[in-house]
Amino acid sequence: MKEFRNRVITSGGSTDQLPSPDVFRSSLYTIDIGQNDFTSNLAPQGIESVKRTLPSVVSQISETIQDLYSIGARKFMVFSMAPIGCYPAFLVELPHNGNDLDEYGCMTNYNSAVVYYNELLNNSLAEDRKTMQDASILYVDKYSAMLDIFQHPQAHGLKYGTKACCGYGSGAYNFNPDVYCGNSKTVNRQPVTATACRDPQNYVSWDGIHATEAANNIVASAVMGGSYSYPPSELLKLCQP
Q1: So what's the pLDDT on residue 14?
Q2: Is 219 helix (H, G, I), strand (E, B) or coil?
Q3: Running along the chain, 241 residues long, what does each successive block of 10 average in pLDDT?
Q4: 162 with 106: CB under 8 angstroms?
Q5: Environment class of residue 191 by beta-carbon count within 10 Å: exposed (0-12), middle (13-18) or buried (19+)?
Q6: Strands (DSSP E) along 7-99, which ranges?
Q7: CA 184, 186, 187, 190 torsion: positive or negative?
Q8: Is the pTM of this model over 0.85?
Q9: Which of 212, 64, 233 is nearest to 149 (CA)?
Q10: Burial of 155 (0-12, 13-18, 19+ CB in 10 A)
Q11: Are strands 160-164 and 184-187 parallel, antiparallel or unpaired?
Q12: Cβ within 8 Å of residue 44, ≥6 positions away
């Protein structure tokens, strides 16, 4: 985001390399960022330390929206962070104990930190709407959409919530941080390969970190219908000139 702002600022005011204002005004800008910054520091720094950095992440998102607005952008979709406490990779890699798990097998402490971030983001976007009243700035609650699928996969036509389709190790999560999906490695002097399951349409998680096509289709349908956005809005309306 800083790189984008620097490109805009250092353009010297010239519009030779920028699209026309009509293009900026009619385009829909989706912002889905921050999860890697959040998760990569959790293990070495701990939850409370990472939480202290979250206001600056939200501030950068707000500043980026303002920069885009200044060159004509008027339509934004900003996604909340997903419930990382339910992802197989983080269930394996992040420190926790049995008391941290809820009835669905998700880590409550990490999900609570995500909720905190999402609240900061939602509040920040509310302030942005006050200063950019002719813009459409949607907060998309990806957290709730994904959490519901992880907690109730059967209700969405799936079978496995916190178990990866493509991985190595089988067990509850089928994830090994030393052998990622599609990779081969020698483990205990034996060559092994992290392979895909035969029925990915039954899984929420593809490789422990990313969602399957089936899960993404469910989330996309919910987002397009507007049921997880604030203010409520159908995506089709935002895509109209």
Answers
A1: 52
A2: helix
A3: 48 60 88 89 92 94 96 94 97 92 96 97 97 94 96 97 95 94 90 95 97 96 87 75 67
A4: yes
A5: exposed
A6: 28-31, 75-79
A7: positive
A8: yes
A9: 212
A10: exposed
A11: unpaired
A12: none
Q: How far is CA 50 from CA 47, 79, 110, 119, in A?
A: 5, 19, 11, 15
Q: Which of these, 118, 137, 142, lies nearest to 218 by C-alpha position?
A: 142
Structure tokens at 86: 């339910």
Q: Which residues of 10-46 are buried (b: 16+ CB within 10 A; e: fewer)?
A: eeeeeeeeeeeeeebeebebebeebbeebbeebeeee
Q: In the prediction, which pLDDT does 126 show?
A: 97
Half-sphere exposure of 168 (CA within 13 A, CB side): 18
φ, ψ for residue 188 (rounded to 5)? 55, 40
